[in-house]
């Protein structure tokens, strides 16, 4: 008996497009079925079509740093399993910002450093050290891609903007 004819990519893409957005693990599992489905789901236009069809993506979860805890916890709001990539286990961290799939973290691990982390891919970028020993109070990670509409800028170039308090350092003696 001959194998069934392969499905046309456009038909598969249309079927995958109708998977519900509130349970993103369905797309993840579909991508594991075969290489052609993975190629379709990870293709340049699928994410954009999926968002146009379903609207704003659902909240996948929350990042929490509990008081007196040393690492970031991800709490899922769907039945999707935890992200396979950990960021800073055992390090004291502070989440400063989160946009476009990236998380800006201030890490205290022997020294203070800034880190931009992608929890989906596990990719981490250590930021250059500032020429001052200040604690950063506020910062943002921003997309730096030219002409980006910010619907599909996950993984592209980024910039970090931070603000420091305008205070005079206190003397060490009382």
Short structural description:
With 174 residues, the chain is of the alpha+beta class. It has helices at 9-17, 25-31, 35-41, 46-54, and strands at 61-64, 73-76, 92-99, 102-108, 112-117, 124-126, 138-143, 158-163. The chain has four helices and eight strands.
- Which regions are unreliable across 5 or more consecutive residues at pLDDT < 50? 170-174
- Largest β sheet strand count, sense and barrel closure: 4 strands, antiparallel
How would you describe the shape?
A: elongated
DSSP strand content: 25-35%
* Cα separation of the termini: 89 Å
Indicate the topology:
Elements lengths: L8 H9 L7 H7 L3 H7 L4 H9 L6 E4 L8 E4 L15 E8 L2 E7 L3 E6 L6 E3 L11 E6 L14 E6 L11
Antiparallel strand pairs: 1-2, 3-4, 4-5, 5-6, 7-8
Helix pairs in contact: 1-3
Protein name: F-box domain-containing protein
How would you describe this protein?
With 174 residues, the protein is of the alpha+beta class. It folds into two domains: 9-54, no CATH class; 61-163. The protein is 18% helix and 25% strand. It has four helices and eight strands. It has helices spanning 9-17, 25-31, 35-41, 46-54, and strands at 61-64, 73-76, 92-99, 102-108, 112-117, 124-126, 138-143, 158-163. The chain has a four-stranded antiparallel sheet with strand order 3-4-5-6, with no helix packed on it. Strands 1-2 form a two-stranded antiparallel ribbon. The protein has a two-stranded antiparallel ribbon with strand order 7-8. Helix 1 (9-17) packs across helix 3 (35-41). The chain is elongated. The chain starts with 8 loop residues before the first helix and ends in an 11-residue tail after the last strand.
